[in-house]
Specification:
With 101 residues, the protein is of the alpha+beta class. The protein contains 2 helices and 6 strands, in the order E-E-E-E-H-E-E-H. The strands form 2 sheets. A 4-stranded antiparallel beta sheet has the order 3-4-6-5, with helices on one face. A two-stranded antiparallel ribbon has the order 1-2. The radius of gyration is 13 Å and the shape is globular.
């Protein structure tokens, strides 16, 4: 799997309003985005996962940045009009986790 060049930040707790938000299981805060990487045995498996993520994203009306190729998928979430990670990103990340790679 091709590794991201971005480095996770030490702080993983975000503040949204008065709530503390911890990144969903498997996700990290990297350069102001929620990020997660998946490994797959081949290109078709990675593309199939991206297709399922795309359907889910449309249901949530929120879309990640998607990087994929032979055997890997990297997703990045951030609410662009806010310039920050918000509760919307956390909800979508948790829903993506349910797809089970």
């Amino acid at each position: 799997m091709r590794k991201s060049k971005k480095k996770p930040k030490a702080t993983t707790i975000l503040t949204y309003g008065d709530e503390l938000l911890t990144p969903p299981n498997g996700w990290s805060l990297v350069d102001g985005h929620l990020m997660r990487e998946w490994a797959f045995p081949d290109f078709d498996s990675a593309k199939g996962f991206v297709d399922r993520v795309g359907e889910l994203d449309n249901e949530h009306s929120h879309h990640p940045e998607i990087h994929f190729g032979w055997g890997y998928v990297v997703l990045e979430l951030m609410t662009h009009d806010r310039g920050a990670v918000t509760e919307l990103d956390h909800k979508l990340a948790a829903a993506i986790n349910q797809l089970d790679g």
